[in-house]
Every structure is written in C-alpha cells, then in structure tokens.
C-alpha cells in the first residue's frame, strides 16, 4: 500500500468519526464516558417537555438509558435500551458525574428514599449516591401541598426524604393545570364550585385565609391548592 492510500484511509476514518460524533450529539446522546446519565424505568409522559427540561438542566450531552419496557419516543432523542440487571448500568453510573431518574413510579421513589436496595435499579442508584454522584429525580408533576391525611401524604413525605438525601427534585408539567381565579379567602363554596366546574386546583394568594370547611372540602374533592407568589 502506497503513502497516498494510507493518507486517504486516514482521512476517511477521521470523517466517519466526525459524522458519528455529530449524529450522537444531535440525538442528545453522549458517548459511554458521558458525565450525565438519564434513566427511564417506564413510560415518560409528555416526552418533549421532559427533553426540554433535561437539556435546559444538563445540556445536550446526555446518555439516556431505557430500562424494562420504558418508552421515551417522540422526544427527538435516541435512547439506549439496556437490561436493568446488566452490568452496563453499573458501568455507566461509575463514569457518570450526574444522574437523573426520570418520571419514576411512586413505589420506586419510596424504595430509593428508604434505602431499599432489593431491586437492581435501587441498588445501582444507591451505590451511585455512595460514590458521590450528583442525583436528581425528574417528576412529571408538581408535588402536591396541603396533603396531610390524604392520598398525597406519601408522595410529599417521599419527596421530602429524597431532598434530605441531597437529591434534587426537578419537575415539569405533563398537563397544564388551569385555575381561573386567585383567592385571598377560600371557602367551602369556592372549592365545591371549582369541583363542579371540573377544575383540578384552586389558587390562593400567599397569605390567604382558608376556612375550616374549605379545608375539609379540599380533602373530600381532592382538589389541589396552589399558592401564588403574589399577595
């Protein structure tokens, strides 16, 4: 082989490597030594909104891993499917500086918060925390408030426990919640009117007064109370 052939081979190889790198960068996937790993364990609602949050937080260099039957289609990202029991997951977490657990189930969040390492996923995530990997949990909902003695209490307690473990809680809204009025005084009638209108939440000002019957109505109807930033 003459020197011209060697030069051409080297040029072609360099061009192919550049094209492959561009393809991975455009798809939002970094190489195996990437510093950010996003893990999806199930269906990810509103994938485009999720992708927007991930890129805004971590940039384009993200390794997206799909476990189980996870689905992240329609987000403009080409994720990598792996088996949760495959050593691939541990190897990728070893190289990661940041990990994002995306749209996990409530049970998975609860196991992670309790340090339950009986499943491969929580075992890998807890090990990553012990290694000092920065971790976040990406929720497809805004954690509820005023949730004591309701179904939402477990979610609130779990999120608080994760924050206590220095795990960041990121959130995007799968579905926009509409509220037409902002109350400085919230009564039972206001809550029941909102419930009959099919609204999912009511908004109050920061120092709003909520009557006792109003609080009872919130519990009974399951309507979420949001607090605005303004008086």
Features:
3-stranded parallel β-sheet; 8 helices; alpha/beta; 231 residues; 6-stranded parallel β-sheet
Description:
With 231 residues, the protein is of the alpha/beta class. The chain is built from 8 helices and 9 strands. The chain has helices at 3-27, 47-58, 87-95, 106-114, 120-130, 153-164, 188-196, 212-221, and strands at residues 36-40, 63-66, 80-81, 98-102, 134-139, 168-171, 182-186, 201-210, 224-227. Strands 3-2-1-4-5-6 form a 6-stranded parallel sheet, with helices on both faces. A 3-stranded parallel sheet has the order 7-8-9, with helices on one face. Helix 4 crosses helix 6 and helix 7 runs parallel beside helix 8 (212-221). The longest helix is centred in the first third of the chain and has 25 residues, at 3-27. The termini are far apart. The relative contact order is 0.11. Mean pLDDT is 82; it is low at 20-33.
Radius of gyration: 23 Å
Distance between the termini: 79 Å
- Overall structural class, as computed from helix and strand content, comes to alpha/beta
> Which blocks of ≥5 consecutive residues have pLDDT under 50?
20-33
| H/E element order | HEHEEHEHHEHEEHEHE
What is the mean pLDDT?
Answer: 82
Q: Order of strands across the widest beta sheet?
A: 3-2-1-4-5-6
Q: Tell me the β content.
A: 15-25%
Q: What's the helix count?
A: 8
Count of strand segments: 9
- Give the fraction of residues assigned to helices: 40-55%
| Largest sheet: number of strands, sense, barrel closure | 6 strands, parallel
Shape annotation: elongated
């Amino acid at each position: 082989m003459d020197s011209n052939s060697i030069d051409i081979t080297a040029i072609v190889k360099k061009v192919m490597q550049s094209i492959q790198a561009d393809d991975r960068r455009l798809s939002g996937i970094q190489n195996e030594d990437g510093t950010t790993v996003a893990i999806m364990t199930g269906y990810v609602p509103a994938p485009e909104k999720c992708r927007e949050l991930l890129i805004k937080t971590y940039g384009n260099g993200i390794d997206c891993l799909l476990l189980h039957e996870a689905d992240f289609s329609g987000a403009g990202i080409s994720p990598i499917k792996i088996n949760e029991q495959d050593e691939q997951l541990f190897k990728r977490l070893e190289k990661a500086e940041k990990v994002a657990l995306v749209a996990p189930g409530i049970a998975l969040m609860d196991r992670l918060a309790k340090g339950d390492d009986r499943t491969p996923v929580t075992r890998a995530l807890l090990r990553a925390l012990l290694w000092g990997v920065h971790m976040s949990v990406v929720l497809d909902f805004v954690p509820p408030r005023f949730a004591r003695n309701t179904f939402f209490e477990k979610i609130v307690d779990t999120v608080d426990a994760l924050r206590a473990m220095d795990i960041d809680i990121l959130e995007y809204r799968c579905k926009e919640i509409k509220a037409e009025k902002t109350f400085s005084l919230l009564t039972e009638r206001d809550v029941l009117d909102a419930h009959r209108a099919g609204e999912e939440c009511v908004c109050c000002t920061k120092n709003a007064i909520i009557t006792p019957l109003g609080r009872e109505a919130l519990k009974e109807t399951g309507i979420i109370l949001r607090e605005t930033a303004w008086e």
